[in-house]
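PROTEIN DESIGN WORKSHEET
SECTION A - STRUCTURE
LENGTH: 149
TOKENS:
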């Protein structure tokens, strides 16, 4: 029988579902990486978590924010079946420096079309959180889910 501790699983979880302590650990890691704080002690005071909480989780959380140039990813979206909605989404890809590799659109059901898109970041790393914020601002977007990348 396999011991569950022998395997490591990774999940993509919305930030809104994370406990505050994990968000604070991620924030402190980011502050240290960017040089905005020089020591862990400075960062702990700034974000307001305990040293033990930080060291318990510091290597367990990292932001899903960057797609490197040449990297591809696949996402699934549901869009309202209205003129211009898909075009708006494709404009977001272009603004974020991403090249569309494939698009597979299903026939709309109840005025909503399911679309699977594979894209590749070109050049400099693309910020996936910036992409998702821009995409989620599209009025006809019903769902956006990153499947792989």
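SECTION B - SEQUENCE
RESIDUE ASSIGNMENT:
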């Amino acid at each position: 029988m396999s011991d569950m501790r022998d395997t490591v699983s990774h999940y993509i979880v919305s930030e809104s579902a994370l406990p505050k302590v994990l968000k604070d650990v991620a924030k402190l890691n980011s502050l240290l990486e960017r040089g905005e704080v020089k020591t862990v002690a400075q960062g702990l005071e700034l974000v307001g978590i305990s040293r033990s909480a930080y060291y318990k989780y510091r290597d367990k959380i990292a932001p899903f924010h960057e797609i490197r140039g040449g990297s591809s990813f696949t996402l699934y979206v549901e869009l309202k079946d209205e003129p211009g909605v898909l075009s708006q989404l494709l404009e977001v890809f272009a603004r974020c420096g991403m090249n569309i590799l494939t698009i597979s659109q299903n026939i709309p059901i109840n005025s909503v079309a399911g679309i699977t898109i594979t894209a590749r970041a070109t050049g400099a790393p693309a910020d996936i959180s910036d992409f998702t914020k821009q995409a989620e601002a599209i009025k006809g977007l019903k769902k956006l889910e990153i499947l792989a990348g």
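SECTION C - NOTES
Helices lie at 20-34, 40-47, 51-57, 85-95, 128-136.
The two ends are 32 Å apart (CA to CA).
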